[in-house]
Amino acid sequence: MTHTPRAALLLLLSASAAARADELPYCGFGAQIDASSAEWRAPWLEAAIDEPDGQPAQRNRTRIRACWNLDALLLAVEVEDADPVHAPPGLDVDRFHQYDSLQLYLDPHADAGARMNDDDVDLLLLPDGRFGVLRGDALIGALAGASVPQRVAAPLALDYATRARPQGWELELRLPWAGIGVQPAAGVRIGVDVAASDWLVDHPPGGSQAFTPERVRALAGHAPEAPEPDATVGLQLLPRNWSGDSDFGYPQRWRQLQLVGAPGSLERLQRALGPQALAWIGIAGLGLGLLCTVMVHNWHRRRLRELLARLAALTPAAPMARSGAESPEAAAAAAGTSTDDADAATADADPRDREFAERVLAYARAHLDQALTPAALAEHFHVSLRTLQRRLKAGLDSSPQDLVLAARLEAARTLLREGRLRVGEVAARVGFEDLSHFSRRYRQAYGHPPSAETG
Predict the structure, then answer these.
(1) What is the pTM of this model?
(2) Fewer beta carbons under 10 A from the terminal one: N or C of the chain?
(3) CA distance linking residue 51 with residue 10, whole number of Å
(4) Are 250 and 148 a contacting pair, CB within 8 Å?
């Protein structure tokens, strides 16, 4: 297959144009259309329009941020304008641009040509919250030879909010894709331009440059043509657009934007199930989580009480831990277990593992004021952490953490019953740094708060 030099040049230019598309990121946040972009989070597409002409005080600056979601195109714009010229009430939509305003040009199918066609949109935005729509019209372009053929169209269903600032104004806009015929997905391209009309002096409105139904009928020979626009009106402003032009509406100069990114898993799930179903799933998940928490708490409480009953049957290594101690049977009854239950888990234990576990317990009882972490215990007994865990499990059916906890609690109970120390002093004596943590663990082990032992 061969190409003429002209065809090859056209292909090269087309490929170059295709590569110039800017990325329009997916919105990873929920936008509230209230004229404040405080909730916006990156990434977004950002651009600025700076006026190079006029006196320094007249050179406006327009900052644009844009992104998209599956429903709409979102825009947040801040305009720095020290001398705003406001549009009067009752102004026709096709004259909005004759006062300080913004225009959002859209080519939904990225099929820009020399003139606006039937799917192109010109959205006119005023600082006071008014907006209007002009649409491209290929028939008008053919009849009138207009380079920017536009007609007044019905307003789009969109969300638009503005607010004044000390030196200008700002806006937020949500433009639903459905209104402009776009099926949003990563890789889709649209043409976009933003134009700022900065007027220098107030003035009466001039003629319209858009095509009203009357002008269309006039072009078709059915009515007198409307008067031409007032040429003097166009000499009183400093126009500028995103593409760098001072004249607006030419689609071949609009920016190409390519949609990138995608919704997260939570948003996809919400769209698949609907917000109400997702809410019920959340409530059910919360309930299941609470149930699991209660079950784990009860399981650990029973395990701790069984361990305390087993420890009560062992020969103590520290007098503090066993002063005034009760019998193993009484300890098991107080813990809500029986000595048979307490011994069942270790009945087949290897005597060597049982002896090793008792030595660790004796060391813990004698050093309750120390940290006694699993790593410290393993180092003291010259074994690996994994070996320590395995032998304590085999010898006393306990983890290192639970064995130390049980040793602290049984010593605390003895001291509390002696009545010579306050609860906080007892907690500190047996190695608890947090009094509330001590109280929770004590209640878990014995079914009542530590203060009940001294009453």
Answers:
(1) 0.59
(2) N
(3) 34
(4) yes
Q: What is the pLDDT of residues 132-153, one digit of tens each?
A: 999 998 888 777 777 788 888 8
Average pLDDT value for the chain: 83
pLDDT tens digit string along 116-126?
889 999 999 99
> What pairs with residue 105 in β-bridges?
122, 193
3-state helix, strand, coil in the chain (%, to 5): 40, 20, 40
SS3 225: coil
Specify the residue for token string 């008792």: 358
* pLDDT tens per residue, range 153-189: 888 999 999 999 989 999 999 999 999 999 999 999 9
| CB neighbourhood size of 178 (10 A) | 13
Would you give the DSSP letter of residue 46? E
Distance in angstroms (rounded) separating the CA atoms of residues 301 and 443: 9
Residue 317's φ and ψ, nearest 5 degrees, are: -105, -15
pLDDT, average across residues 58-71: 93
Closest CA to 357 of 329, 313, 389: 389
Instruction: Tell whether the model's pLDDT for residue 66 goes beyond 50.
Output: yes
**Residue 26: helix, strand or coil by DSSP?**
strand
Q: How many CB atoms lie within 10 A of CB 427?
A: 25
Q: Which one-letter amino acid corresponds to residue 192?
A: V
Buried b / exposed e along 221-245 (16+ C-beta atoms within 10 A)? eeeeeeeebeeebeeebbbbbbbee
Alpha carbon distance 303, 397 (integer Å) = 9
> What domains sit in the chain, N to C, each tagged with a CATH number?
21-263 (2.60.40.1190), 275-453 (1.10.10.60)
Classify residue 224 by its DSSP letter: P
* Alpha-helical regions (H) of 82-137: none
CA distances from 56 to 59, 82, 131, 314 (A): 5, 11, 29, 90
Percent of the chain topping pLDDT 90:
48
Tens-place pLDDT, residues 303-319? 889 999 888 877 554 44
